[in-house]
Amino acid sequence: MIEVHAEFPQREVIQANAVVDNEEKTVSEVIISAKPEITGVTASVDNETGTPYVDVTETGTGTDFSFDLAFHNLKGEQGEKGETGPQGPQGLQGPQGEKGDTGATGPQGPKGEQGIQGEQGPQGPQGLKGDTGADGFSPSATVTQSDNVTTISITDKNGTTTESIDLSGFVETADLSTVATSGSYDDLTDKPTIPTVNDATITFTQGGTTKGTITLNQSSNATIALDAGGGGGSIDYINGGNA
Question: Which sign does the torsion angle of CA 113, 114, 115, 116 carry?
Answer without folding.
Answer: negative
